[in-house]
Amino acid sequence: MDDLPRWKQELPAFPHALVNDLANLLTEFYKEHIRRDVNDGKLPAYAWTLLGGFLTSAMQTYASICLLLADKRPKPLMMQAGVLGRALFENFASVLALTEKPEERALILLRESIKMFALKYKREVEQFGADPKWKDYLDVFKIRQTNILKTFGLPIEVFQNPNLITDEWPTPGAMLWGNKRKNLAAFVSGNRHAVLKEIYDTHYAFQSAQAHARMATVSMAFLVDQPEYQWNPKHGPSNIVVTALLCLACILSEIEIAGGYPRHPKLGELWSYLRDLDEEVKDVWKLRYAALMK
What we know:
mainly alpha
């Protein structure tokens, strides 16, 4: 590989530690407001409890990415951080879809989850139902699931046939373009669609290839293991962190907008800082958030 050209330009490394406290402050601020407003009945409970959970998950995922890429590590774990970046992007996609039709789509997520646990219960009964050691666990499992089925008006027969629940939360690709085979229309529209497509087209294929153990998994592992072949050793981790922080900033903004909260100056500060560093952030800002966050 000695014949490969060498970049003379040193691309900047992103000092994410400078904005971590800012991201955490904003996350805690909106988590608390969601909690209060749900408890006070100001916001629909199902949808906004889910949105609060997505926000919490997003911050935890961003923090995990930073840990995997920390300078104190012997080598930055870029492939693993990239897989988490995919999870954070999918988190953002779900927030976009949920805020477009909160109450209707919250029920889709909840029913899909109920189906997942019904499948788990059915499998465990088939495997362990005859074992006395499993009786108490399976009894409690069934009681709790029965209560949940009643709450959502679902038939008790779901225990025997979980496929009675047909709800399925779409992948980001299906959110963008629908799924003809499943008779599913696109889940996002307008500039929501434009923002999701921008980040999807730029990052999702490579993130998914890493997550699904394709060639990207191998190439990234070799690149980390042999850093002498990296053209710009600091730029790879920085790009992953900036993309993750972009998704987190988008999630915070969607929650601020959908909740009708006043503009938080620190959120504007976060966007300003990111726009100064990255061209993709500028594109995403122009597509949706510049108009909404005036």
